[in-house]
Amino acid sequence: MQEIGQLNSNQKNLFSHLTQAPSDAIFAIMNAYKADTSENKIDLGVGAYRTDEEKPYVFDVVKKIEQEIVNDPSLNKEYLEIEGLPEFNKGCQILLFGKDNPLITSGRIVTAQCLGGTGALRVGFDFVKRHLQGDVYVSNPTWGNHNQILDRVGLNQINYPYYDPITKGFNCKATLDCLSQAKEGSIILLHVCAHNPTGVDPTEDEWLQIADVCKTRNLIPFFDCAYQGFASGCLDKDVFAVRKFAELGFQMIIAYSFSKNMGLYNERVGAIHILTSSQDIATKVLSNLKMVIRTLYSCPPAIGGRIVSRILCNDNYYQQWVQELNVITGRIIKMRSLLKNELDNLNVQGNWDHIIKQTGFFTFTGLTPQQCDQLTQDHHVYLLRSGRMSMAGITSKNVKQLVEAIKIVVQNK
């Protein structure tokens, strides 16, 4: 009798053809940072907020609502609807499009609760693959997971130039030139604000120029909104692009994440919005969107959605959230100024104005991969080799150490 667990000699090794898949760059940095025993290590790869004491932060209003949910006898663990909580979806629409926007009551917006921003992107692009199938234009550079999601879904990707390494800003002309050559019906992936990884956003005038090209070429906007509130510090100002495109009559798709602006990273709370031409079309779009969701994860989890719903649908909780969010965004903006001032004070070679011109969680420093490697190996500073630096990892206590390390690697180039 064959021993339990002994391999079947008649069956070939099913997985011998596999090669080791590359590790995710961001998670690899996280693990390397954790393994480092230095007392002076600095984590600038983290895509999550940290306090000035380098600690994770949970919103007070979130903790309060979590306790309410636990003690609410009316709640249960039954499945949610495929598209999630109705009050969540309504609150998300108001936050993104504005309370008095007539689109909210028009029935033209389809919204579904998703598994974070990543889940919203996957659902959205799966829907595109099935029903639109155009090429997808992606900014160069972009968040690395965009490329992987599009690859898995099977959509053809085309890069459009976005970042200008000379000015360390947005290359508007090159972007417009590229998009003006795009085939009609192509999808253009746009970061709403706080572009990841560069921190470089178009101005309002540049957004209008992008909209004009999209209208002329009949391009379909697909917005990724992961940082509302983190660019300017104003929730309304940060979604200018979405509201303006909607005002101009675009049908479009928006993937939304609450990981950053409500600190719900491990709750995986996001949403997909599809703005359609009519209420009748919206009904049909929702039915097909639900088919996508059903085959991916069936329905979303409840706790995170309930937290977001109570914040967005209760004026008192909403104001508490906005106040806390202002503190968080204020610290990140302050760290930009502090970093820029320290670089200038220590006469670090180069122009560092881009640090305060860029916005959001990340700064594209302009450091080379070799300089980033040296920062990690010699100075225990962890960041992506692209030079992307998380502003949330900088504190009033470690900024001088960081700048001294940057000065060394820049002078040694």
UniProtKB/TrEMBL annotation:
User: For this protein, what reaction is catalysed?
Assistant: L-aspartate + 2-oxoglutarate = oxaloacetate + L-glutamate
Q: Which domain of life is it from?
A: Eukaryota
Q: Which residues form the Aminotransferase class I/classII large domain?
A: 40-406
Q: Which GO terms describe its molecular function?
A: L-aspartate:2-oxoglutarate aminotransferase activity; pyridoxal phosphate binding
Q: Which family does it belong to?
A: Belongs to the class-I pyridoxal-phosphate-dependent aminotransferase family.
Entry keyword annotation includes Transferase: yes
Q: What are the protein's UniProt keywords? A: Aminotransferase, Pyridoxal phosphate, Transferase
Q: What class of enzyme is it?
A: transferase
The record lists the membrane-crossing segments as none
Please state what the protein is called: aspartate transaminase
> EC annotation?
2.6.1.1
What is the species of this protein?
Paramecium sonneborni
Q: Which GO terms describe its biological process?
A: amino acid metabolic process
Pfam families from the UniProt entry: Aminotran_1_2
Cofactor(s) demanded = pyridoxal 5'-phosphate
**Quaternary structure, from the entry:** Homodimer.
An annotated GO cellular component:
mitochondrion
Checking InterPro entries in the record gives:
Aminotransferase_I/II_large, Asp_trans, NHTrfase_class1_PyrdxlP-BS
**NCBIfam families listed in its UniProt record:** PRK09257.1 (NF006719)
